[in-house]
Structure formats: structure tokens, C-alpha cells
Design goal:
It holds the Pfam family Glyoxalase. By secondary structure, this protein is of the alpha/beta class. It has two helices and eight strands.
């Protein structure tokens, strides 16, 4: 019956600004950029080689509680990803890579306040 999740919306205030952040800063690839009958573009980005996509949809993001992230992107090396993104202007909160029993994470916000993290699992948590 159910097969897989293909899209999750990231609510953004400006689609062009969000597209720039997610492609040029984070490094996701642009997938779909198509007009819709109601006005906003259907604009998606994703990790190269993976089917799942974020839809950069106009709206007001909800504010999640600090201490976790709403969106997680798996990386090969969290410290390298942290340094690369930091050099591209990403501000991390807290300002260091976090060490957990399951692996490492570095948390940040996009320009609209969506909470994200890059994560490197270890042991059974490695994907």
C-alpha cells in the first residue's frame, strides 16, 4: 500500500533566496522548478542520488523548540561538513559539532528559521 515519502515542504519566505541557500550554501541539487496554477512555483531540491526532495514552498515556518532539528541531512564526515558550511556563512547553534552516543551532529537554521542539522552516525546508527 504505502511505498515511500517523496516530498516534505520547507516553508520559506522567498523561494529564490531559499533556492540559493539550499543549492549554493548547503550543496543540494535543484530538481523541479515549475509554475503552478495558483501562483507559487513548485520548487524542489534534494541530495544528489537520492529520490527524496524538499519542496521550497512559500509560507511562514513554525518555530520548533531549540535543542533538536526538524530536518536532518546525513553526511560522511560531520566535522568536514561543519567546517565547509561554516566557511560558506552558516552559523551553527551551538557553535560546535555535538558528540552523542549514536554519532555527531551540527545544528543550524536556514534564512527563514527552519532548524536543520548535518549528522554522521556511528556503529548501528551509520546509514
Amino acid at each position: 500500500m504505502l511505498k515511500k515519502v517523496v516530498y516534505v515542504a520547507l516553508l520559506v519566505s522567498d523561494q529564490d533566496k531559499a533556492l540559493d541557500f539550499y543549492t549554493n550554501v548547503i550543496g543540494l541539487e535543484r530538481r523541479i522548478d515549475a509554475p503552478t496554477p495558483s501562483g507559487p512555483r513548485f520548487l524542489t531540491v534534494g541530495v544528489r542520488g537520492q529520490d527524496f526532495e524538499f519542496v521550497l514552498w512559500p509560507g511562514s515556518p513554525a518555530k520548533a523548540e531549540l535543542g533538536s532539528a526538524v530536518y536532518t541531512i546525513e553526511v560522511e564526515d560531520c566535522r568536514t561538513a561543519f567546517e565547509t558550511l561554516k566557511s560558506r556563512g552558516v552559523t551553527f547553534e551551538p557553535p560546535e559539532v555535538l558528540d552523542f552516543p549514536w554519532g555527531y551532529a551540527a545544528r543550524f537554521e536556514d534564512p527563514d528559521g527552519n532548524l536543520l542539522q548535518v549528522r554522521e552516525g556511528r556503529g548501528a546508527f551509520r546509514r
